[in-house]
Design brief:
The protein has nine helices and 20 strands. The chain is α+β, with helices and mostly antiparallel strands and 330 residues long. Strand 16 and strand 17 form a beta hairpin. It is globular, with a radius of gyration of 22 Å.
């Protein structure tokens, strides 16, 4: 029976859906990111991009939200009520605004955080305590994060190269097996990777070319068996390409890590330090980019200090890799 392992960390919450000892879904939610999907809020319509179709609503905290469609009676400058359906998504060179829809008549409310979403799921939730064994790590947490950070997922006979782009997430299949064998092995790997890494929205999968229509239909069926709904997909075309669309409310784990490598590495360092055997005052030694992140979030190091019972100092070392930071006694 699958169950969620949930960990309330410093600066982020983490969760893994585990089945038969392996992680089948992994989620990280950074603290303080607003507005969450499901949030209902009032704001001012500050720009109409396409009449009755699309506009921008400014919320009281200064965040701008893209709204589709617009209410029939909405006019520029009016106060309106919206429900967020997708969080902000970071892309190279820009960040997509959160997306929302009209919610007239609803009461303002915050969207559910990760812990509340898990509680509403169909699976049991197990809280992972800091002082017990590292149940996430024992089930392959680091390996999942490594594949998300690199975009590389290995499977028997081949490799998936996953590349997020502004238009879609592209998954390329490569390997040494004959084309048909590689394609069918990849169908299972692609389905599991999409679920494990939370890839949603528009997804393009480039399988090896299969000449026969019956083979391509069977390949699509194999993919369907590996990925739980909801999703829609095209048939596999003569060039081996298939497009998949999944509902998208949040960034994938790949986008989460690759869009903020320093922040991700800084929070991972805090996790390692909190779980270390150190007690009292410590020094976190890390790449200067991580030190910059931690300096911007003094509450994170203050929380770590309360856990360990001492002061937390920072020291930058440009010779260290981004994930090479460590904690040492002060």
């Amino acid at each position: 029976m699958a169950e969620w392992l949930y960990e309330a960390g410093i600066g982020e919450a983490r969760a893994a859906l585990v089945e038969d000892g392996a992680i089948i879904e992994a989620v990280i939610e950074t603290s303080g990111v607003q507005p969450r999907p499901g949030t209902v809020a009032k704001g001012r319509l500050i720009q109409i991009l396409i009449p009755r179709v699309r506009g921008v609503v400014g919320l009281s905290d200064g965040i701008e939200v893209l709204v589709e469609p617009l209410g029939r009676e909405w006019t520029q400058g009016s106060v309106v009520c919206i429900e967020v359906v997708r969080e902000a998504i970071a892309e190279p060179g820009r960040t997509k605004r959160p997306k929302a829809r009209p919610a007239e008549g609803q009461e303002p409310a915050e969207g559910l955080d990760l812990r509340a979403r898990l509680a509403a799921s169909a699976f049991r939730v197990v809280e992972v305590a800091r002082l017990e064994g590292d149940r996430l790590e024992d089930r392959g947490w680091s390996e999942v994060l490594e594949s998300a950070g690199s975009g590389i997922v290995d499977f028997s006979g081949g490799t998936l190269v996953i590349s997020p782009t502004p238009a879609m997430t592209v998954i390329d299949v490569d390997g040494h097996l004959p084309p048909a064998a590689l394609a069918f092995a990849a169908a299972d790997a692609v389905g599991h990777a999409i679920r494990r890494l939370g890839i949603a929205g528009s997804i393009g999968v480039d399988f090896p070319t299969l000449a026969g229509k019956a083979e391509r239909i069977a390949l699509g069926d194999a993919f369907d068996a590996a990925l739980p709904p909801p999703f829609e997909r095209t048939a596999v075309n003569g060039f081996g390409f298939m497009q998949v669309v999944r509902p998208r409310a949040r960034a994938s784990l790949i986008e989460h890590i690759q869009s903020d490598r320093a922040g991700h590495a800084a929070r991972a360092l805090l996790r390692r330090a909190a779980r270390s055997q150190l007690i009292g005052s410590i020094t976190l030694v890390a790449h200067p980019a991580l030190v910059a992140v931690l300096t911007l979030h003094p509450d994170w190091t203050e929380t770590l200090g309360r856990i360990l019972g001492g002061r937390v100092d920072l020291r930058g070392d440009p010779a260290l890799a981004m994930l090479g930071g460590h904690a040492e006694p002060a």
